[in-house]
What does this fold into?
Amino acid sequence: MSYVVKRPSASSQWYLPAIFSGMGLTFKKMLRNLFVGDKMQTLNYPEEKYEYGPRFKGNHVLTVKKDGSVRCTACMLCATNCPAQCIKITAAEHNDPSVEKYPISYEIDILRCVFCGFCEEACPVDAIRMGPEWQSPALNGGTFNYDIQHLAYRGNLKGGIQSRVDDQERHKAGI
Amino acid sequence: MPKCTINGKSIEVKPGTTIIQAFKEAGEEIAHYCWHPALSVAGVCRLCMVQIEGQPKLQIACNTVVADNMVITNKSEPVKDAVRWGMDFHLINHPLDCPICDQAGECGLQEQYMRYGQYDPEMAEPKQKKHKVIDLGPTVVLDSERCILCSRCVRFTEEVTKTNELGIFNRGDRSEIGTFHNKPLNNNYSYNTIDICPVGALTSKDFRFRQRVWYLKEARSICTGCSTGCNVNVYFNEEGTWRVKPVQNDKVNGYWMCDKGRDVYKFTNLPVRLTSGKTGSKDNWNLLEAGALAKDVGATIRAAARSGADKIALVITGQYSNEDYDALFQFFSVGLGVQNIYHWINNPEDMNGFDGLLFRGDRNPNTKGLVARLEKYGVKTKWLDLEDKIKAHDLTHIVIAGPENHSVFPDLETKLRLFDQVPNVVWLSAGKSVAVDGLTAVTTQIPMKTFIEKDGTYTNYAGLEQKVKRGTTIVAGALTLEEAVHLMSGEELDMNMRPLPPKYLKTNFLVHKGGPL
Amino acid sequence: MEVKLLTEHYDKPEFKALVGYKKLGGYDTLKKAFGMKPKEIIEIVKASGLRGRGGAGFPTGMKWSFLPENNEPRYLLCNADEGEPGTFKDRMMMERAPHQLIEGMVISAYAVQSKKSYIYIRGEYTESYRTVEKAIREAYDGGFLGKNILGSGFDHDMDVYSGAGAYICGEETGMISSLEGLKGQPKLKPPFPAVKGYLRKPTIVNNVETLAAVKYIIRDGAQAYRKNGTEKSAGTKLFSVSGNVVRPGNYEIPLGYPLKDLIFNLCGGLKHGRKLKAVIPGGSSAPVLTADEAMRATMDYECLAQMGSMLGSGAVIVIDDSNCMVDLMKVILHFYHHESCGQCTPCREGTGWLDKIVTSIVTGHGRLQDVQLLEKVAKNMMGRTICALSDAAAMPAISFVTKFRDEFEFFVREGRSKVKKEGYNYAQMHH
It folds into this structure.
């Protein structure tokens, strides 16, 4: 099937009208940002941050049990499944025989992470989720290795509330 | 010789062969848990069902002896159905612990479920609750819920070690494996119960939760813990070696190995290794590349030998391979004409000890090989001569092919104090040692490779030579004794031919191959 | 019509003691037996067509001839571990006529040339244990046991051993394990006990009633014994009738006797004039018969086998229409769950599974597919284990479900019994 390309007309090859309409929009917004602050179109990043929906798959969150300990059993399925190999877990024996195994360290190298979400899918106990946080700027390289403290117990952790679901409740909800 | 047909293949077997053995001989797959070639027949898992032509009922292969002209199959529908249901009966009360179970990845249940099961479970009722994390002894942890009561471990303690620590308590689906009061599972072969456990009911305290098995690669090797030379698989990854398991070899160890031998991986790992060459003396060490150091020290020794080979002594332990010894003797005895060659025996009093099963008092892998070479090169020295010579200050240089495994050398410190009286000490060893770092003589420490990092031949107590291939590299900077000797003799080494440390990332090694049952 | 052969003198209390027993013709047969050759006795027993009375119904003479011809010591074991629910004949035989058993055993021991025998009595039978023990002491004093019995040159020692009350120890190899001091678990066969049994030596295991019957076969001859019963099921047998009948108890009847007559003539019919619903003809492990089948059945090995059930130990459990079959199933399956020794996986897990399924049905949590599942699980337990306990649990389960499927389905749908007004009180039953 032949395909006819419509050549732009001679007048539209002059881009000036489009440039002016675009600049007009920019200046209009600029003036509004300057004088009507509460209707501002941009955010003062990094002081202000954009809120994504709760289902946004951003930085990892380690969920916790009702008693506050991490739900993770250190089965290493996330680490095995991780295509970027950014998860490092060290397991240890728990005092409570019903828990048996737990992670003494759980580190995610967020710079390696490709946010594929495979870890979340591999997890048999809903211990790791991709949370609504997304940005990971930091001042030095070491801070990109997120540990348990960062992933589960950080003060301003977002998405942590949904993780505080008990096993029975999950069972009832059919999770 | 009865002839039978197994799944269409006709084979001839020895009289008295059971069907399951005939299946193994014919190379046919058959599901089983409780049967183990080295243990008695229990016939309880009921998975090795076969159909014999002319018999209405399915029979278990492990307790049925092959008769002449038997036509046996396990590919028919009734057998498949029986095995599928057998799997189901095993699994209805088996917890879904796989994520935290150490056996996952090399588990008999997982494997056979994938091969013979793969059905939708119909059990809707709650599973049977039993005890978890039971401490059976210093080496083994039991999880009764995971146990399928195949009784392999019980039969092992009954028949192989004859210590009878384990038993099955209670009955029906309340049955649990256990030990008797105040009688923990504490014998030198207890880890074997973990190996023969087809599920994750028995787990090793040493290995528990340290690695997932699919991160581990295995290398066939021999145990260097004593002069028996049990055949083993060493499991390793880029972080180091993690455990040792026996491999069947009827000439040497059968199916088993002792608990002491399970520790041999421990001296190969980085924290206890000498990682680079060192020269100097107490509190004043210069780190140098091992090869360069070997060359330097070689030049010194050659110079010293020219002024008098009797001022040089060579001390050898039984921890190296035959190839290493050959190179060593070739250089010192033939090349330099050194006569003062001494055999360092670490535990002379129980050198001939034997526990009746596998473990021997001679805790060196290659004493026999060393003794053979001492004879070959006509060395007839006694240890006391060396002590006399040192005390008389007759020696200027002493070269020590020291131990790989320091833990089996209880006399290490006393001997080092003796060597310290010689002005120049050359210490060749894989392990790092505080005692060596405390030597006041001018000392050169050259890092050696361990058994898992080099090819070599070891002669066991019975004179059987066993060839070992390199498995992995843990200390890339270390040399084998053979390489060190070549460098000392002034030859060059092609560094490009030397193995590099593993660079692969953590990989799931079990994806393409099923583990052994 | 009852034929009183073994039970002839059971009403007389003096039969229990040696003096009274001898007065009533006791130990005369033993003298007669010592006049024969051991081989002759085996031939007579073979000719009599006596079959094992414990449950399996294996020809006794044949069993004896399986002994290997060698000089190893042989053992004769008497299986008095009468564990089958519904059976109580051996208990009566031991309590009322212990010498009859001892005499039968010495004759049998002479026939198989065994110098040592044991009577393995069920743990719960303390009275039987005492009676038999006392009788053995009397027999030793009377010279019927010990060295050179009655001057025949035959030595025989007898011991009595009490079990700890495990059903599985009624299985012959389970009993041998228990007697050896091991955990009462059946052993793998082959080798069979006749080749390698107690202490790995040739061993014959027979039921109390079988051994007692040997005495009467030797006394009267094979042909006289064959007068009762049918061609293939010769002689008389004791039946323990229990359940909803007017006169429950032990009845000695010739084999081949109609079940209908046993229930309605000898036992006086059903209580309170209720209707017959089902009969379990051979102990709890025998498949159940419906009322129709029961009316047609005759009590012999062949007829019941043809009907898909079995004579078993001869425990006739009569069930009237006021009973819920699901409840009964629960009781039976709970028993087998509790008694499984736990060696073989299909039995260990299967009996537990069956119990759990039927429990969830009777507690009102059943699913419709559970009825079918019950049948499927049971079918896959059959013939897959070392001993027959798995079959013993599976056979009644299959027969209950197939013959009374409507009751099971009703229970699942409605959450209550079809027959009983009130719901099943699960908690009450267990505690």
Notes: Chain B has twelve helices and 22 strands. Chain B has a mean pLDDT of 91.
